[in-house]
Protein 1
Amino acid sequence: MKRYHIKYVVDFFIIAMFLGVIAASPLKMLLSTTSNWSETEKRSLAPFPKIPADVFQLRDFFVNIDKYFEDHFGFREFYIYRYSRELDKRFDITSSRSLVLKGLDGWYFFNEPDMLQDFQGRIPLTRSQLQFWLATQNQKNDWLASQGIRYMLIVAPNKQSIYPHLLMKHAMSIKGTSRFEQLTEFTGGSLPDYMLNLHALLQPEKYDRPLYYKNDSHWNKLAAYIVFRSMLERISAWFPEESFETEFAFTADKTGIGGNTGKGGDLVNMLLQPDVTETYPQMAEFQRCGSYQTLQYKLSNVSQSPGRKSFVRHCEGKNLRAVVFRDSFLVQLEPMLSQNFQEIVYLWKDYDQKNIEEILKYFRPDIVIESIVEANLFDSMLKVEQGPNLHNSRKESSR
């Protein structure tokens, strides 16, 4: 009888544990405050979809409700952490379905949908797509020129575009022609005057220090400085009467958690391993000529979500004004760039013609700068062709 009671207690305990584990995630999800932002993955989480108004909206509703539950189920980040941790610890790899790929020599790479395929040349653009993209960019440039405004496009290379040999063993044997490489071939290696070729500029063999963080998807301060000098060289040619501050000193390399925002690399943060350190170039502190100010202009569709603030900087003694459509690659560039403009408006969003027209009611910028990462360069064009359901997690990130 005693043995029967022990077996009963053990069975009850096992069943209770089983039910507890199953119920934990739904209960956590129901009892926790809904968040719209993942600090770990640095992206917006899927919102709860609107209730369908008719049967034709049912399919999209169920697709979006599935995305909502994928992003919000309880203890999600803990499960991702444990899974990634075990793969890394026991097999020295990350999941092929993970947003992060563990490369060679301690380097990590962002594995957004299509990035690896683009690296392999498996999602090429057609000639008509390249023509359409280039025509769209020329149209921006021409319209701005008609208003007496210069246009500059900077494309931040994907990390694997600069360090392809560190992506994985035999990476070069599977490398194909990326879409950006298609563009350079299409233009005969001569990109438009308004577009900087940062892929050609950021060649690692030219420098004795890394240009990107090992644990982060972004370039570091050294690469940002190199890009900044190239930008100011072009701007100086456009505005020869202006003087610019272009000399910024570097100190000894620093060892720490680093990353684009100084809070650890975004890639190891996605793996919930925020304390991983590395050694990276460090710029010396300098006196900034103006403080950050909130956006005063009434502009359409400008989000102020966490980690994606739009703002204004002023610098006395300068003459030029600028508007910058930016992403997270501007974090390292912004302090240097801001030193050279009387007023510079930073909008954390894609280029928006409506915003430019709205800004013209307040002042006329001398230059409009569009900064976009390589992975997102052709997305606006593809959205036109494929409609609003084009998956684009990178756009939702702070990168």
Note: Confidence is low (pLDDT under 50) at residues 388-398.
Protein 2
Amino acid sequence: MGKSNNRYEEEFKAGAVSLVLEKKQAISKVSKDLDISEPALRRWVKAAADPEDSATKKIADLEAENKKLKKELENAKDTVNILKKSVRIFVEP
């Protein structure tokens, strides 16, 4: 059927998810018709509806990291400026 080395092919998964999401068929009916387990189909539907590794999530994570790094850089620059000023105070008469 749609199995390849005891795993389902992505095209098969996409078709099953499409039947649930686009054709509005019940998960129980689709799983029975395609001879797959309901929990597996539920996982596929959930992953398709709200993918954890989606590009949007990755972009949001990168933006958060970028913001954090910019703040750290700003703090480091402030520290360097303070140290430069303190060196001038002790070195210059």
Note: The helical segments are 10-21, 27-34, 38-49, 55-91.
